[in-house]
Design the sequence.
């Protein structure tokens, strides 16, 4: 626990299925041309994303638990699951433990084989021509992104532990400077991005739309840039109120017209910038300053609306949800959303737990993000009209909602019935989204 | 009285997995592992390889002493559990010492079933359940020329192969008509049996040992057809049963094993059971079954540990699925889920080539995988297990799955990874 | 030659058309060559945006047409477009204007020279889809330049002029061109559409966003937070506000200059701020606004024939309010009857009446005055009605005073 290991990461969107990695692996590991020896298996198929079978070097490896001979061990130094040929008895029970085809019987050599990471210099990564395979840690991913220019000034006045500041800095680093940024009233301009009294907090064009009209203003801007023949990205960094409450009409209209923009909702479940008032995305039971806790009322009485799902129903070019506990997932989606925004409307819904407004320690932000996902309170998925909805992280076997709720002060008054309600709500939402998988909304 | 917050009786897969799950959530609560055995923890599954010499007896431990020290897990060895005292939240060991617990896990495993064959009690036969058994069998094999193996289950088959490879003339007596019943159907079993035939192992299928007669240098085994087999080594591999003798009078609900719910909890407060001793939900029916298979023991141990430590991420047990991997004479057999069905609504696809020794059988129902068994076919049992447990709908990819279960399964699971 | 040149007049001469005010406005839009147009229909403006859309479809107007989901987004999109340098157009009225209010009140502060026709309509409730000035009067304090048209031809001409006025570098304010719903929107007359080449020369090069742009090539923050205690906050805010007010005052000159130049180039002259009609030897006068003025002038002519010394003062530019021009006109008479097509709640009078009296203050003179309110809900203020107004106003000279407004059309 607590150690970040380098590992071979796979970016499905970049993979063209060429198979160079398999050839390199077979050569490196068996000196053979025969791809049967490759410990990385690319599964390419027409009209479908490329899938991958290889050892993921799990943190909690079942292959190790299943080994009766003590031949498999998670190496605490490298993070690699080491296989000891001298102890292996060829019983194949390890293969029962792996759900991803990461350790398999190689008939040609007569024993199981698995990726050993090539001692930190994987042959497959070196030959990957598209950059789909990388050898990195989450930390090195951040480092790479942080080499790009931070387009916000230092010293934005966000609260300690603010998820949104992290998000917008990383986002704009990826988006680059050929952009117009709209930040409707909320925490993001509140922390000084548009600036105060003549000074700006952003190095690119930035403005305050109204809380109500972000998508429309960007649409007008884009129309004129198209007319001028200039390709400029339109980016909204909006809070949930500016998205799902008063901002909804203009958002819905822009999505319907497939305006070319990337609309990013930073969902902190209420009006956190102005004193934690309730919004349409505040979950049931939440304490807020307008849904207080007392004899007659115990937090918000109604459920939050699922904005990402609503946007999916607009059949946008791209819709995705994201969490900062899963940055690689976010970066991948951001790239896709940016690309989609050149063609039409792209919507990213990023969940943004707020230490100040939700009452949890500033140091716990990312852990709260993670628990949101692990309990299915937040599900990670993306949508295109062609592919329909696709979960980008499995929703199978979530932890119970109580694991998430107990971390957060705004839920501390909940009684069992309220917890049960939220649990049911989570399950209903997942079921509902599952119904959209493999279903093209274009149909 | 000795006391441990978490008391775990047993020291194989279920016990070790439970201890690990507990430590994930509680890094301070005392954990004590009690085992009958005096060796470092090992897996019964590795024993045939100790017999064959592939594994050396001193290198099969599942955990090093460093591990127990690092994780602050206390061990009591060489002490069988003799009595449960639920009212006092305590157990009593064979030397009389008592341990108080807050949470108790019974992972006492199984012990060989000795069939009621007249004369057997007067014979110095071998079984294969403990490391000491394996060492004894290995020693006996070194001196034997003729061996009889009772039972063509996994223990019997592994034993027969090991003994034959050691140059011993081996006969296997199995009262059912096929080897490895439950894991393979008759057709697949026949392929396996034929391989043993080719290696000179005499396979007596559908035969029963009627009585055993001691001899100066061994015994004679009289079969139900009148045939007599001479053996200077008799290996009894007719199955195992859960070790539950200590449960007498405790009030613990027993059937074939200790009955548990989907959190591996027994009917008594603060007592859980997991692994080969436990009788838990079957995946395919409402019945409760003793599965006695290693991956299931791991699964149950993890669930029990999480339940004991009140890990909120605990997911209920999804039910036992028969699952096994079996290598014989360099060939690989795997079986995940059911291997045969009488259900006419099921779709069964068999691919069989006796020449190549190839067999693959896929059973689907309502677009969902029920079972797959194969010999010398490249498959990922772990992926297939998950497809069964998750009741993954394969309707849309059925043709593809039947043609290429390996690639299709990998693709499906890869898609769930992100 | 561009599509519009061909469509209007290949010989670069005016083309005569018979059309209503909404179509006339659309021809004005075509002549102004906007880059981005956003529309949302509302009675009685609908046919105007239909004409504009049709012109886009036919290539007569080469612009991005945005069919957005409501007036709020109409104006928002146009603000965005203008910040990218676009000349823009839209039109609305009544409930649509009310819905547009949030971006509407922001536009002048952003100093974006948008042009929007208001095809005026009475406000709800009572439920009503007919003409009246109440909608435009409700937003008179929002900071937009507002000019009221009297004729269908003037709708076309003023729509074009609005761009030059609003975009003038010393003004940079949005402009409403107001035309009476029903009377001008649907009233059909013959008009002249001026040749595009002359209009192009009249409007000159556009430069919409020189002062505030959202452009990666000129990165800046548009509209950072100002105000609050300490720092340059309140001072900065006051500075911006004062600049808006100064621009409004400057606009009076620019409106006059623009009308003069229009007259010189196109040959049609309008009183840009306040029109004085038969005022030179008048004892008293009517004060009017918008399309009612035609009937009022007929009534004045008839009264003159009867020997009444009555004149008329018509207000064209209501924002900025032409205080000096109004004072000059008022100084010529001894009593006034002010006819409003809307009400000023709480004043028991019409808003034009109020504003006229406020302008009078600068003359340091007292004039007896009466407030008349008519033409609400699309009602016709007839020549006979105006004759009554003239009679009532004349009574002021005899010392009569009215308590509260005179309600025209109460018995219609």
Sequence:
């Amino acid at each position: 626990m607590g150690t970040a290991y380098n590992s071979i990461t796979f970016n499905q969107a970049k993979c063209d299925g060429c198979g160079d990695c398999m050839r390199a692996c077979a050569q490196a590991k068996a000196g053979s041309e025969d791809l049967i020896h490759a410990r990385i298996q690319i599964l390419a198929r027409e009209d479908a994303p490329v899938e991958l079978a290889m050892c993921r070097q799990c943190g909690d490896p079942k292959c190790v638990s299943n080994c009766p001979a003590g031949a498999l061990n998670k190496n605490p130094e490298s993070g690699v699951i080491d296989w000891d040929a001298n102890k292996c008895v060829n019983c194949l029970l390890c293969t029962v433990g792996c759900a991803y085809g990461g350790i398999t019987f190689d008939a040609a050599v007569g024993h199981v084989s698995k990726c050993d990471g090539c001692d930190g210099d994987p042959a497959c990564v070196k030959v990957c021509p598209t950059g789909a395979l990388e050898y990195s840690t989450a930390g090195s991913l951040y480092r790479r992104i942080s080499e790009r220019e931070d387009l916000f000034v230092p010293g934005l006045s966000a609260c300690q532990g603010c998820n949104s500041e992290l998000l917008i800095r990383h986002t704009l680093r990826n988006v680059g400077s050929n952009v117009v940024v709209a930040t409707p009233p909320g925490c993001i301009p509140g922390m000084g991005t548009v600036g105060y009294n003549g000074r700006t907090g952003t190095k690119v064009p930035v403005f305050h739309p109204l809380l109500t009209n972000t998508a429309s203003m960007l649409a007008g801007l884009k129309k004129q840039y198209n007319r001028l023949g200039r390709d400029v990205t339109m980016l909204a960094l909006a809070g949930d109120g500016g998205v799902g409450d008063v901002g909804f009409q203009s958002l819905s209209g822009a999505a319907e017209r497939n305006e070319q923009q990337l609309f990013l909702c930073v969902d902190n479940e209420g009006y956190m910038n102005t004193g934690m008032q309730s919004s349409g995305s505040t979950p049931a039971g939440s304490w807020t300053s307008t849904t207080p806790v007392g004899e007659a009322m115990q937090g918000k009485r109604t459920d939050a609306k699922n904005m990402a799902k609503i946007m999916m129903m607009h059949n946008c070019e791209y819709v995705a949800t994201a969490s900062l506990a899963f940055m690689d997932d976010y970066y991948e989606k951001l790239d896709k959303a940016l690309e989609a925004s050149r063609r039409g409307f792209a919507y990213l819904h990023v969940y943004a737990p707020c230490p100040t407004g939700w009452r949890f320690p500033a140091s716990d932000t990312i852990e709260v993000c993670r628990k949101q996902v692990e309990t299915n309170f937040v599900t990670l998925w993306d949508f295109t009209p062609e592919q329909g909805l696709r979960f980008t992280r499995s929703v199978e076997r979530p932890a119970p909602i109580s694991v998430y709720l107990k971390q957060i002060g705004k839920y501390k008054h909940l009684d069992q019935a309220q917890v049960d309600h939220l649990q049911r709500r989570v399950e209903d939402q997942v079921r509902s989204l599952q119904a959209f998988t493999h279903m093209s909304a274009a149909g | 009285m000795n006391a441990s917050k978490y008391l775990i009786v047993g020291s194989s897969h279920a016990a070790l997995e439970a201890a690990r799950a507990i430590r994930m959530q509680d890094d301070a609560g005392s954990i004590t592992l009690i085992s009958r055995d005096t060796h470092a923890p090992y897996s019964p599954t590795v024993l045939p390889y100790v017999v064959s010499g592939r594994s050396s007896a001193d290198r099969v431990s599942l955990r090093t002493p460093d591990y127990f020290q690092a994780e602050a897990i206390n061990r009591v060895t060489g002490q069988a559990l003799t009595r449960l005292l639920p009212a006092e939240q305590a157990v009593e060991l064979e030397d009389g010492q008592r341990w108080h617990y807050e949470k108790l896990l019974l992972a006492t495993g199984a012990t060989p079933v000795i069939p009621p064959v007249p004369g057997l009690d007067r014979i110095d036969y071998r079984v294969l359940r403990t490391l000491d058994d394996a060492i004894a069998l290995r020693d006996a094999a070194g001196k034997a020329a003729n061996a009889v193996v009772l039972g063509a289950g996994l223990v019997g088959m592994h034993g027969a192969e090991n003994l034959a490879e050691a140059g011993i003339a081996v006969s296997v007596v199995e009262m059912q008509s096929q080897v490895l019943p439950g894991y393979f159907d008759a057709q697949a079993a026949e392929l396996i049996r034929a391989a043993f035939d080719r290696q000179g192992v005499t396979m007596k299928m559908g035969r029963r040992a009627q009585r055993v007669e001691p001899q100066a240098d061994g015994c004679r085994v009289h079969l139900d057809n009148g045939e007599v087999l001479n053996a200077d080594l008799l290996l009894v591999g007719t199955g195992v049963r859960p070790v539950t003798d200590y449960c007498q009078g405790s009030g613990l609900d027993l059937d074939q094993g200790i009955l548990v719910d989907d959190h591996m909890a027994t009917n008594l407060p603060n007592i859980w059971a997991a692994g080969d001793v436990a009788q838990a939900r079957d995946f395919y029916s409402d019945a409760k079954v003793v599965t006695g298979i290693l991956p299931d023991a791991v699964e149950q141990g993890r669930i029990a540990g999480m339940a004991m430590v009140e890990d909120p991420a605990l997911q209920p047990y999804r039910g036992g699925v028969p699952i096994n991997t079996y290598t014989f004479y360099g060939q690989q057999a795997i079986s995940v889920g059911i291997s045969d069905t009488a259900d006419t609504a099921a779709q069964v696809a068999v691919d069989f080539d006796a020449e190549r020794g190839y067999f693959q059988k896929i059973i689907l129902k309502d677009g969902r995988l029920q079972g797959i068994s194969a010999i010398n076919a490249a498959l990922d049992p772990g992926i297939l297990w998950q497809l069964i447990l998750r009741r993954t709908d394969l309707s849309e990819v059925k043709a593809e799955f039947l043609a290429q279960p390996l690639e299709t399964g990998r693709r499906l699971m890869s898609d769930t990874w992100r | 030659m561009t599509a519009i040149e061909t469509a209007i007049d290949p010989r670069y001469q005016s083309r005569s058309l018979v059309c209503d005010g909404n179509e006339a406005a659309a021809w004005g839009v075509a002549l102004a060559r906007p880059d981005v147009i956003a529309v949302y229909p509302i009675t009685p403006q609908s046919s105007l945006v239909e004409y504009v859309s049709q012109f886009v479809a036919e290539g007569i107007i080469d612009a991005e047409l945005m069919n957005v989901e409501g007036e709020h987004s109409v104006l928002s999109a146009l603000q965005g477009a203008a910040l990218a340098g676009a000349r823009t157009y839209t039109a609305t009225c009544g409930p649509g204007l009310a819905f547009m209010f949030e971006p509407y009140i922001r536009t002048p502060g952003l100093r974006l020279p948008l042009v929007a026709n208001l095809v005026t309509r009475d406000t709800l409730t009572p439920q009503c889809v007919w003409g009246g000035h109440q909608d435009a009067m409700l937003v008179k304090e929002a900071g937009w330049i507002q000019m009221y048209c009297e004729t269908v031809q003037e709708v076309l001409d003023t729509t074009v002029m609005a761009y030059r006025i609003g975009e003038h570098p010393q003004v940079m304010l949005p402009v409403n061109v107001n035309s009476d719903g029903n009377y001008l929107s649907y009233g059909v007359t013959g008009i002249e559409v001026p040749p595009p080449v002359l209009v192009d020369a009249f409007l000159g090069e556009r430069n919409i966003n020189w002062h505030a742009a959202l452009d990666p090539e000129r990165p800046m923050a548009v509209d950072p937070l100002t105000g609050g205690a300490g720092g340059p906050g309140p001072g900065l805010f006051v500075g911006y506000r004062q600049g808006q007010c100064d621009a409004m005052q400057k606009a009076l000159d620019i409106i006059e200059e623009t009308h003069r130049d229009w007259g010189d180039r196109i040959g049609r002259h309008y009183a840009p701020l306040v029109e004085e009609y038969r005022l030179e030897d008048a004892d008293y006068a009517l004060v009017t606004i918008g399309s009612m003025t035609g009937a009022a002038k007929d009534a004045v002519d008839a009264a003159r024939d009867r020997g009444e010394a009555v004149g008329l003062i018509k207000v064209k530019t209501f924002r900025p309010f032409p205080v000096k021009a109004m004072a000059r006109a008022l100084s010529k008479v001894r009593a006034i009857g002010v006819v409003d097509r809307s009400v000023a709640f709480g004043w028991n009078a019409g808003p034009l009446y109020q504003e006229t009296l406020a302008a009078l203050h600068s003359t340091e003179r007292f004039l007896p005055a009466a407030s008349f309110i008519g033409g609400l809900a699309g009602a016709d203020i007839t020549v006979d009605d105006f004759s009554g107004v003239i009679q009532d106003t004349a009574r002021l000279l005899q010392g009569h005073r009215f308590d509260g407004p005179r309600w025209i059309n109460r018995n219609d």
Q: What stands out?
A: The first strand of chain B starts at residue 2 and ends at 9.
